[in-house]
Amino acid sequence: MYLLSTVVASLAVFFFLKWMKKRRYCTDVKRLDGKTVLITGASSGVGKETAVALAARGARVVVACRDAGKAEKAVREIKLRSRSLAVVGMELDLASLRSVRRFCENFLRREERLDVLINNAAMPGVLDWTEDGFSMCLGVNHLGHFLLTNLLLGRLKECAPSRVVTLTCSSYKYQKLDLHDLNYNLLPFFTYCRSKLANVYFSHELGRLARGKGVTSFAVHPGLVRSEWTRHYSLLFRAAMRVLAWMLSASCEAGAQTVVYCAVSDEAARLGGGYFVDCRPATLRPFARDAGVAKKLWEASERLVQPP
């Protein structure tokens, strides 16, 4: 009896973990020949898998990374796996507004098109500061992408219909924004949650402002995936997270599917953007759908990224 109970319990755990890691795959076969896609943080994880998938569909893919060495290595791998030579790397440090401005100047000078912008790069909950004095999560996850998108918005409109896909996380639901303390930097996990909520508001307000101008905005939660975010933490923490990741998370390739879906799918475009999980629209918590907060965050972000 004990043996039977153990076997049943083990099978239950096995199928539960398998269900947890299950993901839908993007089945849309649309090509992107002649299109240009810019992906931030594409040297690893979901960003790199997205780059492989879109390059394989014929897109010219620009890989924007902080580390030039990692970017060069990623470009070689993406070219090999996608069987495409139309992959280039550019240096971009989202923790520096100066770097973002320099990157945009170079990009607009070098690239004639921008059809899809994928705001993928993210910093986990770490108590650190950017060179501009913002908390690292706010600066990289929100303000860096906010400035990047606004500086490239003109090119996106010129190439309409175009898309902006911003990666967020379901952890947005565990915090609310304090518009009087956007630079909150006390508890790492809460700092991260607030930045992911900012991504949701940003995507919502961008969609509202760009409505009728040919630019569709998507917020995407890729799910729990085995990425390299733990590299910012101790060896013991990384080991523990590796075990949990093996048990509960999906591959980065699976995590990239919703990003790819929002980047290529005509069905997703007809839905007019929104929040997507597992290759389908999902419902946000009521406070995350507050258009008034989204507008106020946008205005506050404009003031924060203005050069002194």
Structure notes:
The chain has 308 residues and is α/β, with parallel strands linked by helices. Helices cover 49% and strands 13% of the residues. It contains 11 helices and 8 strands. It has an 8-stranded mixed sheet, with helices on both faces. The model is unreliable at 6-21 (pLDDT under 50).
Overall shape: globular
Mean pLDDT reading: 88
For the biggest β-sheet, the strand order reads: 3-2-1-4-5-6-7-8
The number of distinct helices, counting runs of at least 4 residues, comes to 11
**CATH topology annotation:** Rossmann fold
> Biggest sheet, open or closed, and with what strands and sense?
8 strands, mixed
Kindly name the structural category. Answer: alpha/beta
Helix content: 40-55%
How far is the N terminus from the C terminus? 73 Å
Protein name: Si:dkey-174n20.1
Family: Belongs to the short-chain dehydrogenases/reductases (SDR) family.
Keywords: Oxidoreductase
InterPro entries: NAD(P)-bd_dom_sf (IPR036291), SDR_fam (IPR002347)
